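INFO  loader      accepted 1 record
INFO  loader      residues=209
INFO  predictor   begin
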Amino acid sequence: MTSDEKPQSEPGAERGAHERISDPARIRALAHPLRLALLDYLGDVDEATATECAEVVGESPASCSFHLRILEKYGYIERAERRGREKPWRVRTKDFDLRPDPDVPGSLLAVQAVAELGLESEFLRVREYFSRVEQEEDRWVQASTFTRSAFWATAEELAEFSREVQNLTDRFEGRSADPSKRPPGARHARFLAVVNPDPIASPAPEEPR
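INFO  predictor   done
INFO  writer      dumping tokens
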């Protein structure tokens, strides 16, 4: 199960490298809608100040500054080079994996909390798109998809499939930070996928004797 207290990053993490995060405190630091929005935005740009973030997420600079410091404390972002009097932020890595570890108590519940929040946020975003879809040009409507599939797989096959899904957007790498890499007419797009087995059925209650 993935969702992609140590104030610093876990050992071996460096800017730009893939990072697996299983520490419950670090994971729970993302269980806040504004922090998720800030991290998403910083992942789309090279760097941004608290004021620039506030203009995008619709919160005050003071509120953004507070939550940016929380993200820094738990190793998700760091200070970029100063721009005169401005102090921008940047992500430490754009490739991290929130994954529970059976040997780390609390990590499963932490991932569960962030996953539920992330799913709710994405549901609202997708619902807003479909509520305004009549405003879209037909070519963009035809280019969009809502896909559901069901299949049988082993745990190993499902894990391999999950990794393939996680890598589907690699072909667009670099376009967020570098506008020159975007083809003419490109729009910011979103991708949401959930890969999971059906829940284990609860045992039927015993008949009273």
